[in-house]
Amino acid sequence: MFVSTSLRAISRNAPLTARRAFHASSARMVHFLDATPETFKAAVANKEKVVLVDFYADWCGPCKMISPILKRLTDDPKVKTGSGKALDLVTVDTDKHTALAQEYQISSLPTVIAFEDGKPVSKFIGAMPEGSVRNFLGTL
Q1: Could you tell me the pLDDT band of residue 30, with boundaries at 50, 70 and 90?
Q2: Topology at the third CATH level for domain 31-139
Q3: 42 catalytic residue (yes or no)
Q4: Torsion of the alpha carbons at 23, 116, 59 and 30, rounded to the nearest 10
Q5: Of the residues 30, 43, 44, 60, which is catalytic?
Q6: Which of the four pLDDT bands, split at 50, 70 and 90, describes residue 116?
Q7: Whole-prediction pTM value?
Q8: What residues does each domain of the chain span?
Q9: Buried residues in 91-103 as b, exposed as e (16+ CB within 10 A)
Q10: Which of 63, 87, 100, 114 is catalytic?
Q11: Is 52 a residue of the active site?
């Protein structure tokens, strides 16, 4: 009990950026959470994986519904695209990075764009159930 309480205290006292910071597992996925424009451009340039970019805002209710689904799917080594490629996840806060949102013509939230070889190849808008997201991934 003492360990979990102290871990919660450390987590609660950590700055927001530290809790949303980049984390990775070399064996499977890479998540770039709350990406800057520079991080975004480097991440989507990946030629070996499909990169899902979740354009969101903290105040957006549907964004809070789709984000955990995207994280869960990109964490699962069994989930791949229709072409068999693995997935990475990038999240972009549209309130912080308005120029990036404008560049990709984000007018509704959440918007998820799939990038392959640095180019957008497909997208969906709005929250969807996990099964629908899996179907979307199967089309890539």
Answers
A1: confident
A2: Glutaredoxin (3.40.30)
A3: no
A4: -10
A5: 60
A6: very high
A7: 0.78
A8: 31-139
A9: bbbbeebeebbee
A10: 63
A11: no
